[in-house]
C-alpha cells in the first residue's frame, strides 16, 4: 500500500486523474466530502462487496486515514493493484481549503 498526504494529492499534477474512493458512511459523506470522490462505504467492503474496477490508479480516503487503510488492504487482498491511502483524509482536505470540499 502506498501512502499520500492530502496536500500532495491536491497540489501534484501527477495525481490529477487518480480515482478517489471515500469509504465513510453515507451520513458522513453527505455532511462533507472531497469534491469529485465516489462513495463506497467500508461497511460494504466488510459485506464482501467491492467497487467496480477500472484502469485508473486508486486512492482511498476516509475521515482521517484509518478506515481507508483497511479498505486498501481489502482491495489489495482481492487482487487489485496497489492502492494509495490518503493520509489525513477529509479532515486534511478541509484544512487545505474550502474549495476542496462540498457540504451537504
TrEMBL record:
Superkingdom of origin organism: Bacteria
PROSITE patterns listed in its UniProt record: RHODANESE_3
CDD domains, per database record: RHOD (cd00158)
Name of the featured protein: Rhodanese-like domain-containing protein
Annotated organism of origin: Bradymonas sediminis
Amino acid at each position: 500500500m502506498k501512502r499520500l498526504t492530502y496536500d500532495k494529492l491536491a497540489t501534484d499534477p501527477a495525481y490529477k486523474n487518480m480515482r478517489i474512493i471515500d469509504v465513510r458512511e453515507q451520513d458522513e459523506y453527505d455532511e462533507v466530502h472531497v469534491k469529485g470522490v465516489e462513495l463506497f462505504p467500508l461497511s460494504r467492503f466488510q459485506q464482501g462487496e467491492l467497487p467496480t474496477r477500472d484502469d485508473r490508479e486508486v486512492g482511498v480516503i476516509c475521515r482521517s486515514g484509518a478506515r481507508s487503510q483497511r479498505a486498501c488492504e481489502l482491495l489489495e487482498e482481492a487482487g487489485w493493484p496497489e492502492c494509495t491511502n490518503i493520509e489525513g483524509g477529509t479532515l486534511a482536505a478541509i484544512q487545505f481549503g474550502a474549495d476542496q470540499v462540498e457540504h451537504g
